[in-house]
Amino acid sequence: MTTAPFPDRPRADAREKVLGAARYGADFAIPDMLYAMQVPATVAKGRLTAVPTAAALRIPGVVRVLTATDFPPPAPAIPGAGPPPSMIVADIAYRGQPVALVVAESLEAAIEGAEAIHPVYANSPFATLINSPGAGREPAKRVTAGDANAAMARATTRHKADYVSPAQHHNPMELLSTTAHWKDGVLTVHEGTQSSNLVKGALMRNLRLNAEQVVVKSPQIGGGFGQKGSVQSQTSLVARAAMLLGRPVKMVVPRGQVFHTATFRPKSRHSIELGADASGKISAIRYDADHQASRGGQFGPDYHEHVPQMYGVADYLGTGADIRIDTQDPGYMRCPYPHPAAFAFESAVDELAFKLGEDPVAFRLKHRATVDPLNGKPLSSNFLNDCISEGARRFGWDKRGLAPGSMRLPDGTQIGWGVGCGAYPAITHVSIATLRIRADGTARFAVAGHEMGQGLRSVLTQVLVRDLAIEPTGLELAIGDTSAAPQHTTAGSWGTASGAPVAAEAAAKLNAAMIELLAGRTVAGNLHQQLAAIRRPYLEIEVSHAGPGQGVKDLAALRGGGYAIAGPEYPDFTTFSYIAHFVEVRVEPRTRRIRVPRVVSVVDCGRVISPRTAESQVRGGVIWGISAALREATDTDPRYGGWLNNDLADYVVAVNADIGDIEVGMIDKPDPQMNALGVKGLGEVAMAGVSGAVANAIFHATGKRLREMPFRIEDLL
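RESULT FIELD:
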């Protein structure tokens, strides 16, 4: 099995997407379809006392209104897995929670019916901000290495500051949707999800069905980014409606409701203290982070998952807390912990470097980590310093003036150059795949995975086409389908690191099986032609793949629809992906508007399987990091709860005019301890450190340190 660099091939699914042939969850039109719409709660906390439905049922086309009495009690939570997706219940935990479901012959009738329902509530006191009376602080587990307090006392230079990252919402182009069909005792659900296995398990628990009665299909996702990684709140509602009415039911959740019912990035606060020793290296880190949390959710403040290992600081004390308020569950949003953590930490690193009179690049290069300070295990690979050095060369860092405010254009525009780095855990999961090659020129590879635009189909195609003599145009990839192969959640940058190795192993096993089938005969042509020549309609193999330290127990968990991940700590090593971003900002002298005309980003993600989609991932992460730093924040109404700017008019994101040139570089060195192909993760790490680089560039341009995102014009006036 070779680990030579892969060629730059076009996206495997580019043509069908351009032609509109790719089918997403809401694209499935089933005869005799009904349409559903939710009725959201208009109070932040309380209890339903009445749901008048008569007005809705009088609207032509409305078939039924489902309320709490039409649903079984929610299934009990599984420890460590969080609650199942919401059913309709009488107790209101947050504004926007669904309190009824209107089902109609048309979308228009469903909307009109939902608007005609005015529930009655018994209100309860609520807290919707992390500093609201009634918010509860729940301490989280400490993360420690060495003795940070003693090391901080010995430090010759210290820096301490607080940083804030706002609440933010995913806004993928594809809205949340569910299409459910109950036929012959089998529930089939089409949904854009990163977790067809979790959706299946939740439906089984909530609707009291067995595994043979539920099939979930998610062949394409129009953007996921974590929002579609957990089970969505509308899924069980639509499925229940389909079962009760005996007809297919579809619901596309309006964007305003998505803001209120889907997970989101919580507001977080980061208090960081760094100490440096006499040699000018970081010798101690104390880091406390808290964030907003729902009353019962399990999305903990795990902001320490890369900071200790980033620069190999032996003495570390990490603390944190959940601030419990009345909101829906926060959750994973691209680069969920390292994005806000890297903004805070990389800002603090720059501030310490400035105190020491050090160049920010030279300061970082002093700190090459070789060992994980949390467990003493070696890092299997770490090319962060290569990323920094190569990025600095491409960016022209040697021309940077050290003093803030020292670089200007003739019209007075201030120029700032900043650097920010990031790391993300390298994780993998077990896979069970089936590969079938047919004599008719087609092939089918069924495996766990979900295509959310990150390029998983291109990755799998790259490996299979390289290692098998097959027709690329005849290759079918069956992913996101619980009826095709055991599925696993696709998130956490583990898609390629899990899918590519099993594809390579499947190709090797298929080639070996073909040699055995031919039994020494020489037959010309590719695999399809060889099968045709010996009059064999097809050849099929099954293969399973496990990451380091994984085995039979993990494969059993996968077959049961559970999590089966490993990393970043493996039995003999720890592994991360790394990135360095170099950002130029320009601050206009009068309006103080901030622009980002160019970025250079260099990444270490192990072997790059699909260069085309890998570079696209980095550009997307950079754009999102700029957007997070300069634009994005979701505002809460403290009087009534809920999100105020719950649409794309008021939730401001970066547009084309905000983005300049983005140059991407890949170290492309394999990590052979991670897997035979040397693949690590990429999608998440691409965003880590971008916002910190923007903040550092703004300080270099203006001399003003901004510690709360997003950075707005008024912050520089």
